[in-house]
Amino acid sequence: MPAKIDRFVPGISLVYFDLKLSYMQFLLLAYDGTDPEALQRRLKVRDEHLRRISGLKKDGGFLFGGAILDEQGKMTGSMIVYDFPDRETLDEMLKSEPYLTDGVWKKIEIKSFRLAKIG
């Protein structure tokens, strides 16, 4: 369990431990609609989506991810690796994901995932 220094006072250091247990990782593959308005739907809520992802990153729920691109470099979907206690918690968070609530993602796949520990 990694220790973190909260603050340093000469002669006394206050240390707390990161108590985050080993959560489950999930790979989300999400595909946008293919209709002519699909890219506009994505761009309309992209800032809100990225704000939420930023918050999840700070909380440790987002490990990495990004846009899936077609051959011309146009965004057509998303790939995200999440870290949550269980699938139910992930599903609950996704209920308010802007790309789902605003109809950007038309098809999603979620798989259990394990990031390789290399090095």
What are the main properties of this structure?
119 residues, alpha+beta, Alpha-Beta Plaits, two-stranded antiparallel ribbon, globular, disordered N terminus
SSE diagram, text form:
Elements: E1 3-9, E2 12-17, E3 24-32, H1 38-59, E4 62-69, E5 75-84, H2 87-94, H3 98-101, E6 105-113
Antiparallel strand pairs: 1-2, 3-5, 3-6, 4-5
Describe the structure.
The chain has 119 residues and is an alpha+beta fold. A four-stranded antiparallel beta sheet has the order 4-5-3-6. The protein has a two-stranded antiparallel sheet with strand order 1-2. The chain contains three helices and six strands, in the order E-E-E-H-E-E-H-H-E. It has helices spanning 38-59, 87-94, 98-101; strands spanning 3-9, 12-17, 24-32, 62-69, 75-84, 105-113.
Number of strands: 6
Q: What's the story with the biggest beta sheet?
A: 4 strands, antiparallel
Strand order of the largest sheet: 4-5-3-6
- How many helices in DSSP terms? 3
Secondary-structure-based class equals: alpha+beta
Report the CATH architecture: 2-Layer Sandwich
Would you tell me the overall average pLDDT? 86
What assembly state would you assign to the polypeptide chains in this entry?
single chain
Written as H for each helix and E for each strand, in order along the chain, the element string is: EEEHEEHHE
Output the CATH homologous superfamily: Dimeric alpha+beta barrel
- The Cα radius of gyration reads 18 Å
The structural domain count equals: 1
Uncertain segments are 1-19
- CATH topology name, in short, is Alpha-Beta Plaits
Strand content: 35-45%
CATH class: Alpha Beta
Please give the alpha-carbon distance between the first and last residues: 18 Å
Please state the overall shape, judged from the principal axes of the Cα atoms: globular
Report helical residue fraction: 25-40%
